[in-house]
Amino acid sequence: MIDAAQLAQWFEAHCAPLTLYARQWLDRSAAEDVVQEVYVRLASQRTAPPNVKAWLFTAVRNEAISQGRSAHRRRKRERNVPGAREEWFEPAAADLLDGAAAREAMQSLPAAQREVIVLRIWGQMTLKEAATVMGCPVSTVYDQYRAGLKALRERMSASCKTNKE
CATH class for domain 1-86? Predict the structure, then answer.
């Protein structure tokens, strides 16, 4: 079994980025549940995977997508209109970034660009690790990352202009 101290260290290092990553597909509480479930799965394994961070992000991705699909089907069956999505960024008085504008800019990106940006920035993954998680070539991940950053810069700089400009 995996050592509890090692598991706690992985949890401390990766829990917040994994939760943010899962929030692409789920609300906050469901994303937290998915991350917890994945850690339980990891704890029950005999040995640790060769690249724990990549394994965690892959498992969270797969479970979040699966849970998101299930929730969508359930809402459709129940004929409920999905409510507004929770905030990704919580504003603080000292923030130099407009959280609402950043959230809108991220949500406006194609899914692959948004996913790779979350993996790289918040997940602190290399392009190679992100490619493993996303199941595509490193060159594709690089192209998606570069295009996503360019689009974010354009959208965020446009939202920061004043009337004087």
Answer: mainly alpha
What tens digit of pLDDT does each residue of 59-90 get? Answer: 999 999 998 888 777 777 665 444 444 455 55
Q: In angstroms, rounded to a whole number, what is the distance separating the alpha carbons of residues 46 and 12?
A: 21
- State the Cα–Cα distance between residues 49 and 56, nearest whole angstrom: 9
Delimiting residues of CATH 1.10.10.10 domain(s) in the chain: 96-165
Contact 57, 125 (CB under 8 A): yes
Cα(17)–Cα(129) distance, rounded to whole angstroms?
14
Domain 96-165 in this protein, CATH class: mainly alpha
Q: Kindly give the residue spans of alpha helices, DSSP state H, lying in the chain.
A: 4-22, 28-43, 52-78, 99-108, 111-117, 127-134, 138-159
pTM for the structure as a whole: 0.68
